Amino acid sequence: MPLGANNVSAMDAELARALGLTDDEAGAVCRILGREPNHLELAMYAVMWSEHCSYKSSRRHLRRLPTEAPHVLVGPGENAGVIDAGDGVAVAVRIESHNHPSAVEPYQGAATGVGGILRDIFTMGARPIALLDAIRFGPLDDPRSRWIFEGVVSGISGYGNSVGVPNLGGEVAFDDCYAENPLVNVLCLGVMPAERLVLGRAEGVGNLAVLLGSSTGRDGIGGVSVLASAGFGDADADAGKRPSVQVGDPFEEKRLIEACLELLDAGIVVGIQDLGGAGLTCATSETASRGGVGMDVYVSEVPQREPGMAPFEVMTSESQERMLAIVAPGSLDQVREVCARWEVRASVVGTVTPGARLRILDRPGGEVLADVPAASLHEDAPLYDRPMARPAGLDALVAADPARLPAPKDCGEDLLDLLVDPAWVYRQYDHQLFLNTVEPPGGDAAVVRLKAPGLPGAGGRALAISTDGNGRWCALDPRQGTAMVVAEATLNVACAGARPAAVVNCLNLGNPEHPEVMWQLSEVIDGMSEACTALGLPVIGGNVSLYNESRGRDIDPTPVIGVVGLIDHLDRRPPGVRLVPGGRLVLLGDAGLDGTEPSLGGSLWALRAHDHRGGRLPALDLATHGRLVDLVRSLVSDGALAGVHDVSDGGLGVALAEMALRSGTGFTVGGVGGHVELFGEAPSRVVACVAPECLDDVLGRATSAGVAARVLGEAGGDRLVVEGLVDLGVAGAAEAWRGAIPRALAPV
Amino acid sequence: MSARVGVVLFPGSNCEHDVVEAIHALGGQAEIVWHGAASLPAVDAVVLPGGFAHGDYLRPGAIARFSPVMEAVRAMAAGGGAVVGICNGFQVLTEAGLLPGALQKNAGLKFICTTVELRVESTNSVLTSGMTPGGILSIPINHFEGNYTCSAETLARLRDEDRVVLRYVDNPNGSMDAIAGIRNEQGNVVGLMPHPERACDPLAGSNDGAALLRCLLAAASGVRAA
Questions:
Q1: Cβ distance A7 to A26 under 8 Å?
Q2: 3-class SS at A101?
Q3: B31 tagged catalytic
Q4: B87: nearest Cα among B111, B114, B52
Q5: Percent of chain A having pLDDT more than 90?
Q6: Domains of chain B (ranges plus CATH)?
Q7: Closest Cα of chain B to A489: distance in Å?
């Protein structure tokens, strides 16, 4: 491609491409600077304009999401979204992916995913009080998938436990499409007094930029560009990307959290910003441009792990456990004192300047190595309207109705194959620290009390959090599939008695240069938008992870939705996923009654039993769903239910079985027409276990709420009985369920 | 008069606020003591809380034993004052030589966070005086290195001298003789892997840990638990 006067020379174009910039992007840098960029400047634009940092393929579409509501204090675009939880308490939430680092180096990839999301939260002034992980892998009969799975879980456990933030679970799923590109999405939630909310902003010419925490090394250089913004080829070549994965130190992070929260408590910092993707380049340019000021940064003053590091390495390193604080000169001694107590290094590495330039100097008063408009690194990032196309084979896939598959010989055997107890995963996570955990991992939603040292008395308030995703549904119909995932997450928090209040999302998709993937992305965003609008939910933050592909195959589109729900008065434990002997089993939101046929489209059963991924998704009616969410929330918070579980993967059969196995109590239900009804995954359904004396009340309230309800049977005994279809002993089924992951990890 | 408890905060500790909260809820007074302090404030008992003191670098407790406050803790123990180490605190006490044995990696080589059943074996300790011998408690564990081990002679002494305070009903981590907690000769120093502060509220699961902490408060203020 010929280069014009405003473009970089041929040799630099070569360099720009190696750094991940296209020729057009390199040309745009020339136009912004009015000259050719030098190597350092090119490197800074390359990381900031990477897909990971700039959202250049997705930004245009993300604008369609609803983001406003009266209780939203901070929406998308900051380090974390923040909502007002009442009583002067604010809740900060963010979710992020660390997929590619985890594929290359599972332990450190996952560990630093946890570290990064924690910094996003305490950057806002909030103390992190909960982590959740949504993780997806290839099937465990493959040794590489076992290596990735065990490494990721150990990494989350090793870092999260040590850093001292409870991990409330999340979800784990296995599917072929994630075999070489696992998904590791981490959600963190923090709390703070509402008036302490801080934004990463540099203000006040003459103020100092102080780098806190670890020294800067050669790890993670190009993490956002080389690693996160390109797909995977063959395994050997990708092993070469391992040095682009950062290495975490949870003890450094723990001290950094305590020191930063103490600095914010004392009111001696003007602004604070974490260093994540794109390292110092991102933190200095973002704080400067948000504050409408410029900044000089001195490379010599950045503590370096090894001698001989080039300025571009210092400016783009993604070494972990670092924060940038903006400090007035008069407060510097106090800042140093707090940091010294926590054994956290604090180094003045820059100065806030008038104007709007970000300048990199070799030392204070020394040579200027780079000089760029600070805002141009993000505001002028390219914005792509990439071509979109509905995948060619999709119509045929949707037309392949799994209802035509042969019925199971024994529904009980098929049911056992679908049961997986995730306890092997969450037993490795400290899920009890801070004494807030009311509903531990493994249920529909985690429930934590809103309480932390220094927080205003939050009088019995609590939060319910759920993360959900379903690549099978979204592959068939990304728009409706995503809406169903949002619906499921809201129903999960309702099952804990919470009012859904905000959504965060992590959109995991394939290569945006494939028009089919861009179509999926656009549909996913529209589906999320439709569901959130219908349910009155603001989207307060998100992360887009693209290039999830390997050897040219894109993953199924997998938006992971996190919903935070508020509980005003938590005076009793939510009923949880369980059965109580003698309780009546009621299906709320019975899909059969509104005239739609039950469907096996996109069901777990069709995939597991027949490796079939086709069909049309069952219908979703968001208005009906909203009524069900309200009903379930009020039934739970009034104590009307003895047990409750939403119907999701594996349909009614799996929902009933999970309730039975978690409580060691059997059930007998009737009137289930066949395997389609047993395993179909129609949305907007909940199984409730109701004490006999409450049954009339519950059925009456369902009728008044306009929600269908059907009595299925009764809890009790030591067998799982679906008349005519399933008859299994509780003990044997429990063994199969509990042992599913351990057995897969220790193949004979 | 309510007992005053000092809760030591090492860099990397993370259960200090939980212990303070649990003791406050039981009517005791509690304050956090920085690991760098050369002396203890006027307290009736000291708790070394759970977490990862000094990042568990080298091995759990190996660096914490050198923190300045440990001299004062040692002196308090020698003077008969109540000293309890929970989880990482237990590991610190063994490294400091205030309790015998060591905690090695769990038998399954995995971190374990779950609620287990414990049997009260000895009531001759500041943590269990007033408990029912043989009583069963439901209390969470949360550790990677909780697998208690010691020499055969030490084990024999611990048994003969009634110094095994708590045993696991169903050994989760490979601990020798299913030991979950031990005491020193006098019974004023106790180390245990389970977290009693995590079992002080039925809303969060169990209230059985409160009984142990009440014993500690009673012992510390010189009154037998009712």
A1: yes
A2: helix
A3: no
A4: B52
A5: 85
A6: 4-225 (3.40.50.880)
A7: 23
Task: Spell out which residues of chain A touch residue B204, defining contact as CB-CB under 8 Å.
Answer: 432, 435-438
Residue of B nearest to A167 (CA): B113
Decide: A289 and A357 in contact? Cβ < 8 Å.
Answer: no
Which chain B residues are within 8 Å of A440, Cβ to Cβ? 205
Output the pTM of the full model: 0.95
Contacts of A158 in chain B (CB under 8 A): 111
pLDDT in tens, A418-469: 999 999 999 999 999 999 999 999 999 999 999 887 787 657 899 999 999 9
A430 touches chain B (CB under 8 A): yes
In DSSP notation, A675-712 reads HHHHH---SS-EEEEE-GGGHHHHHHHHHHHT--EEEE
In degrees rounded to 5, what are phi and psi of residue A426?
-80, -15
Q: What 3-state DSSP class applies to A600?
A: coil
CA-closest candidate to residue A463, choices A180, A91, A134: A91
Number of other residues whose CB lies within 10 A of the CB of residue A724: 12
Q: Between B11, B18, B144, which is nearest A435 by CB?
A: B18
User: How sure is the predictor about B224, in pLDDT bands with cuts at 50, 70 and 90?
Assistant: very low
pLDDT number for residue A591: 62
Determine whether the interchain pair B111/A158 forms a contact, defined as Cβ–Cβ distance below 8 Å: yes
Of B145, B197, B200, B215, catalytic: B197
Is there a catalytic annotation at residue B21?
no
Contact A433 B205 (CB under 8 A): no
Q: How far apart are CA B166 and CA B168, in angstroms?
A: 7
**What are A35-73's pLDDT values in tens digits?**
999 999 999 999 999 988 899 999 999 999 999 999 999
What number of other Cβ atoms are within 10 A of residue A369's Cβ?
A: 20
Which of B35, B54, B143, B195 is the catalytic position? Answer: B195
Q: Could you read off the pLDDT of B22-57 as tens digits, one per residue? A: 999 999 999 999 999 999 999 999 999 999 999 999
Q: Cα A20 to chain center, whole Å? A: 26
Residue A242 is predicted with a pLDDT of 59
Strands (E), A322-367: 322-327, 346-353, 357-361
Q: Quick check: A435 contacting B, CB < 8 Å?
A: yes
pLDDT of residue A460: 87
Q: Give the confidence band of A503 by pLDDT, cuts at 50, 70, 90.
A: very high
Calpha distance A227→A101 (Å, rounded):
7
Do B204 and A432 count as a contact with CB atoms less than 8 A apart? yes
Mean pLDDT of chain B: 96
d(CA B28, CA B41): 16
Residue A164 has its nearest CB partner, among B14, B112, B201, at B14
Q: Which residues of A touch B52 (CB under 8 A)?
A: 161-162, 164, 250-251, 254
Chain position carrying tokens 């009985």: A721
- In A, minimum Cα distance to B197 occurs at A435
Reading the block at residue A316, the tokens are 């783009």
Query: Using one digit for the tens of pLDDT, what is the confidence trace for B9-31?
Result: 999 999 999 999 999 999 999 99
